[in-house]
Amino acid sequence: MVGGVLQIAGLLVGGIGMIGTFAVTGMPQWRVSAFIESNIIVFETIWEGLWMHCIRQANIRMQCKVYDSVLALSPDLQASRGLMCAGSVLSFLAFMVAVIGMKCTWCAQSSWQAKGYIILTAGLLFILSGAVELIPLCWVANTIIRDFYNPVVNVAQKRELGEALYLGWVAAFCLIAAGAIFCCFCRCCEKTRSYGYSAPTHYPTDSQHLHSKTESSYSKSQYV
């Protein structure tokens, strides 16, 4: 019962993390224009993402343009592209392995050892995908904060943390939590398997004691 609840909870949390990872990878709100000091043009908002940059004017019109070249991006955004794509693939692979593991659990002929290995693989993949996703998120956030407090950087070029970064941190937490849940389920499987293999100890009953005593006395009378 507990194992089934852990599987369903892990699959739901992992699915939320996977969908969030896909959304963050495509969202342009990684870097948002900062309205500070002399930069008070509030009717125009600039968004910078991994694949495109957008300009939104007065919440009415928005124009987006795909980057002309990868080399035109900053090093953190260049690395974030590959890492986020890798995290998306790993999260999808972990979700599919988890689904296969749940189907294997529902099958009556499958062994506990095979179930444990499949679920453990899914958990490790979820944790790995969450860790891979955290690297670009923290890298980009560190670059934004560093440039924001750098007096050398022009005010018009300073950016703030966008919504995609916050959503990415939540998605990464969900992926790591799903991996931990599946690893806990694997631990429960090992305990159940160890309990199943331990044979119960049979103690002789009173009738068996009486029967053994009768046989021993009968064997002694034969010798006499």
Automatic annotation (TrEMBL):
Membrane-spanning segments: 5-24, 81-105, 117-145, 165-185
PROSITE patterns in the cross-refs: CLAUDIN
Compositional bias segments (type: Polar residues): 215-224
Primary localization: other
Membrane topology listed for this record: Multi-pass membrane protein
Entry GO MF terms: structural molecule activity
Keyword Transmembrane helix: yes
InterPro entries hit by this protein: Claudin, Claudin_CS, PMP22/EMP/MP20/Claudin
PANTHER family: CLAUDIN
Protein task: Claudins function as major constituents of the tight junction complexes that regulate the permeability of epithelia.
Family: Belongs to the claudin family.
Protein's UniProt name: Claudin
Native organism: Nyctibius grandis (Great potoo)
